[in-house]
Predict the 3D structure of the following.
Amino acid sequence: MSFFSNLFGRNNDPKSIISFDVINPIYSYLYNEQASLEFKVKGIQENVMVNLFYFPGSLDHEEGNAEIKKAGFNNSYEVLNELYKKMNIGTLSDEMIQEGLEYDFIHIQFYSEPTVEEKKFFKRSIKNFVIFFCSTNSLEINDFRMLYSGKHFYDYTKGLLESEVIDANNPKNESEEIGIKDFKLVLQGICQYLNIEISKTVELPSTENLVQSEEVTEEIFQEFIKLVSRENIEEKELKKEAKKLFKNFNKPEDDYDEIIEDHFAFFESIDAWNSDWKFDPEDAEYFISDLIGEDFTFDYPEETYSHDLFPYIQSALEKQNLELMSFDTKGDNYLFFVVNKEDVNRILELSELIKIEVDQL
């Protein structure tokens, strides 16, 4: 294992969780104990994946070698040098390559809320942070550089090469800004998951235990129902629906179709708009007015329909601190409902926990 120096200042702001003093203990655990982790972090959609890879070994297999050749390189060290150039890290000489040393890097992958533009096509946005270690004005490893990508690494070599250098303090666009915000949560979650102590000087993104699992109970379903109905439900009906949904949760997977039907019936019972995939602005204004109990209008470009209307609907609802969401019907229709904007993240967390799939639009 070896690293190389450069002339830039260290990434070790004592207040930032994206710092060498936080990332290095994570690296030590991955190197000495377990090279791969997958677990849930509160506030992050689906599981977080953390992997320790290394050059040349992690790319030294039939598929990897084919990807390297396709990218125009002879071996993985040449790929590494290309990445080092991008990050302003000193490259490997031929003599260094001949030594056959290993060069480690960490790949952290998770999903975030999509950007405004991505929402037109995706329900979630993949985030890849690839961390390479180096030395700054030192003979010891004391620094790191990061590459970022918002794409899937179907071709891993291509994914690495197309990744861009990211500055955690200066995101270049909305995608990077969202990614950095969630990356801070992920780093705190990793440290809590591995029982790594974080310095008291670090400004934590959350005061919570981000990896503490919640037990699914009827009370959890009650919380979910209150949030998706904006508490517009009688206590007796609340308990009845929570009991029914909790019972469904404990049914075997063989009863999947029946469970989906019951979920569908639940959303229809709390004021929802069941729409075909194709709808016009007038439909949206009429039904959302009914859902929120007051007249609703929004501005939109001419000849705009269906999902292309979502940004304009959400912009108008945001002025009232509301957001439009949908139950995943597994079909070509929507089952829309309106929630308080500050409740959206918790609704998504509970949705994953209780296996009732809802979507941000």
